[in-house]
Structures are given as C-alpha cells and as structure tokens.
C-alpha cells in the first residue's frame, strides 16, 4: 500500500513527578491518499493523544509520523485540525476567522482578491457564506463546526484531522454535518483521520475503522475495512447487511474489550 501518512512504531509515555503512564504502545498505521480512516476506542485510551501526535502538538516518546515520507515534528497547515469544541476566535467574524488561516498559508502565493475569493469559496462549500459577517456567538453549534471545517479546508491541508467534530452536537445537526463531511470528502478527495466514540458514525463515514484496545498501553486491536460503495446514504444503509455486519463487528470489539477490563 502507498503510505501517504505513516504512523511508525509510536509509543507515548506521560511522566508526572515519579509517575509514568504508558498511554500508547507500538502504534503502526499506514493511510493512503484520499482515505477516510476513523479511530474508535473507549474513553481515555489515547485517541486524542494519537491525533495530537499526528498534528505535531505532542511528540511521540518513540517512533514518529511521516507525511509523504517527511517526518512531522511540529504543527503545520498541511495537517489541519477540527476539534470537538470549535476554536473560532470570538471577536472575529466568520469571514475573518477563515481569512486568518488563508492569509497565513497563502500570503505569498495568492493576491488579496484571490484570498478573498478563496475564503468565500470555502464558506460556500460548508453552506456558511450567508453568515460571513456574523460572530461565533451569533451562530449555532453546528454552524460553528461548519466554519471550523471551512477554516481547516481553506488551508488546503494534506490531511484533515477531526477530533470528535460532531461530539457536542444534537443528533439531527450531527447527521446533517456528517452528510456534509461525506459530500466534501467525495468532492475534494481529502485524506481524513477522525476520532469518534460513535459506532454508526465510524461505519457510515470511514473506509477503515481502527479499533483501539483500552489503555494504559493502548494498541491497535483491529482494523476493519468498510466495504460500502460511495456515495453512501444513511437511510439505505440502515438495512444494508454489509453495514450491519461492520457495525456488529465494532460493537463486539468494544464490548469484549470493555468486559475484559472490568474483569481484570
Ligand atoms: N498531558 C498529559 N499528561 C499526563 N497524562 C495525560 C496527558 N494527556 C493525556 N493524558 C492521559 O493519557 C490518557 C489518554 O488520554 P486521551 O485524551 O488521549 O484519551 P482519549 O481516548 O482521547 O479519551 P476521550 O475519548 O475521553 O477523549 C489518559 O489517561 C489521560 O489522562
């Protein structure tokens, strides 16, 4: 397989005083260009830590991350992150929030007019152009996440990192936003690494689901291919045997691991 993004023998240990906790152990994962990969696992197993290592926000204790064969050591616009709780600047408008990233990345390659058009193009992609003059406090949670996604996409990242991007939303808004992200992935062909707790979300959106064992020393327990063609329609999938089989497999994995920990 062509390794676009490679997580190579990653271990992560946190030390506080005399106490050391090994959070991640021997994480190996290869992601192809254009793939949508989800990471699922119980709370506290180290999913966010792993995403932060890929983002360059935290260093691995051993091993590392390669993007197009180059080692990742710090945050960069080639790996844009969308967090669960939007991280828009409250004093800037929707337009200005997206513009900030665009100005940084394209300062020398796009003219002012091109940058303006690019901001609007990305706001249009997430259907938020109408709210360009609004501030974050004036729009809903789902809208804020849309703007966060526009801001990330506008940087033209090689990899889009989604840390439970729909986690704080109500079920309907969540479904709408999942559909939007699926449509964007279809249209733009982004490489996406997403953390989720939600089994249905993982199956609906992903090409592969990475299932993590419980921490400490969490590992990749299993990787499941989702053999569903795209575009995917949530209503049709509800009765699709391949969908139900994947869902069952992930539930079994999480349930068995969960029981294992309780018994230990
Ligand atoms: N900076 C840190 N210092 C010490 N321990 C940390 C630090 N960051 C995370 N941890 C520990 O690492 C473990 C994994 O945390 P992490 O947030 O990555 O898990 P998670 O799977 O994303 O959890 P959740 O699903 O609840 O968000 C936890 O036990 C946490 O307490």
From TrEMBL:
Gene3D superfamilies xref list: P-loop containing nucleotide triphosphate hydrolases
Any one GO MF annotation of this record: nitrate transmembrane transporter activity
This protein's UniProt keywords: ATP-binding, Cell membrane, Membrane, Nucleotide-binding, Transport
Lipid bilayer topology: Peripheral membrane protein
Localization of this protein: Cell membrane
UniProt-listed PROSITE patterns: ABC_TRANSPORTER_1 (PS00211), ABC_TRANSPORTER_2 (PS50893)
Domain of life, per lineage: Bacteria
Domain ABC transporter: residue ranges: 5-239
UniProt-listed SUPFAM superfamilies: P-loop containing nucleoside triphosphate hydrolases
InterPro entries, alphabetized: AAA+_ATPase, ABC_transporter-like_ATP-bd, ABC_transporter-like_CS, ABC_transporter_ATP-bind, NO3_transporter_ATP-bd-like, P-loop_NTPase
Entry's family note: Belongs to the ABC transporter superfamily.
Protein name (database record): Nitrate ABC transporter ATP-binding protein
UniProt source species: Bradyrhizobium lablabi
């Amino acid at each position: 397989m062509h390794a676009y993004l490679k997580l190579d023998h990653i271990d992560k240990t946190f030390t506080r005083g005399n106490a050391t906790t090994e959070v991640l152990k021997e994480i190996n994962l290869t992601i192809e260009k254009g793939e949508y990969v989800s990471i699922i696992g119980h709370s506290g197993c180290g999913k966010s830590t792993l995403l932060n290592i890929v983002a360059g926000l935290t260093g691995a204790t051993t091993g590392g991350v390669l993007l197009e064969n180059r080692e990742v050591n710090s945050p960069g616009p080639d790996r844009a992150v969308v967090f669960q709780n939007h991280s828009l600047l409250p004093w800037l408008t929707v337009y200005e929030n997206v513009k900030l990233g665009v100005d940084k990345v394209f300062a020398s390659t796009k003219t002012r007019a091109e940058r303006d058009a690019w901001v609007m193009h990305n706001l249009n992609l997430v259907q938020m152009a109408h709210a360009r003059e609004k501030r974050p406090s004036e729009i809903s949670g789902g809208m804020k996440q849309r703007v966060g996604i526009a801001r990330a996409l506008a940087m033209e990242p090689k990899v889009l990192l989604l840390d439970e991007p729909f986690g704080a939303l109500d079920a309907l808004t969540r479904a709408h936003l999942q559909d939007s992200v699926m449509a964007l992935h279809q249209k733009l062909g982004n490489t996406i690494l997403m953390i989720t707790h939600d089994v249905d979300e993982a199956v609906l959106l992903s090409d592969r689901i990475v299932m993590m064992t419980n921490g400490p020393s969490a590992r990749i327990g299993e990787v499941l291919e989702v053999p569903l063609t795209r575009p995917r329609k949530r209503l049709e999938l509800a009765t699709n045997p391949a969908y139900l089989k994947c869902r069952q497999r992930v539930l079994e994995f999480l349930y068995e691991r969960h029981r294992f920990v309780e018994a230990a």
